[in-house]
Amino acid sequence: MHRPRYRSRPDPAPPETRRTLTVLEHDRAWHAIEHATGEPDADPGTVLNAVLHALRITPPTADDETAYALRKRLTA
C-alpha cells in the first residue's frame, strides 16, 4: 500500500531571477514616475503602481502579500 509522504516544511521558493529593463521599459517607467510625482498627494505606492502599470506588470494581490508574510514569519 502506498502511503503519501508529508513534508514538515513547505518547499522553498525558487530563487528570484533579476533581469535588466529594456530601453522601452526604462523609458515607460521614467515617464510614469515623472507623471506621478507631479500629482498632488503622490505617495510611493502611487508612483510604484504607475510604474508597474506603464511596464504592464501586475503587482501581487493582497492574498499574495499575506501568504508571503506568513511564510516569512514561519521561517524567521
Give the low-pLDDT segments. none
- Please report the number of helical segments: 3
**Rg computed from alpha carbons, rounded to a whole number of angstroms:** 19 Å
Q: The biggest beta sheet, please?
A: none
Instruction: Give the H and E element order.
Output: HHH
Question: How far apart are the first and last residues' alpha carbons, in Å?
Answer: 37 Å
Strand content: under 5%
Number of strands: 0
Mean pLDDT across the residues is: 79
What share of the residues lie within helices?
Answer: 40-55%
What overall geometry do the principal axes of the alpha carbons give? elongated
> How would you describe the oligomerization state of the chains in this entry?
single chain
* SS-based class: mainly alpha
Question: Could you explain the architecture of this structure?
Answer:
The protein is 53% helix and 0% strand. The mean pLDDT is 79. It is mainly alpha-helical and 76 residues long.
Descriptors:
single chain; 76 residues; mainly alpha; 3 helices; 0% strand
Task: Give the SSE layout.
Blueprint: H1 23-37, H2 44-54, H3 62-75
Helix pairs in contact: 1-2
Short description:
With 76 residues, this protein is an all-alpha fold.
